[in-house]
Write a structure and sequence with these properties.
The protein is of the alpha+beta class. The protein is about 15% helix and about 40% strand.
Length: about 130
Amino acid sequence: MKCCNNKTIIAVIILAVIIIGGFFIVKGFTGKAIDNSITDSGVREFTIKAFRFGYDPNTITVNKGDKVKITIDNIDTLHGIRIPDLGIKGNEVLEFTAEKTGEFIWYCTNMCGEGHREMSGKLIVK
């Protein structure tokens, strides 16, 4: 006795792919919500994955006056973040108050290979 035809099997596979794809879109590829969280003390917290040769997410947005904590999840080697225009850098955690509006490029703090010079992200302070 035949249970299912090929069209049914294909439909089930397509549905599974759509459901799994939707999960990644909602949660982001990091498995965490794309939006940041605000702690009870009013700190805006972000977790950024750092890997050869990029960041995920590679752009974060905060408001002027926000207390910000960025935790760096170094995936494959020590990377870190340096924001030269704000005089901020760290390898695992950055904590600061966003006192200046604008767009600020961040860079990898530690030489991590051939793509190191292109490794960057952006902090937007509104």
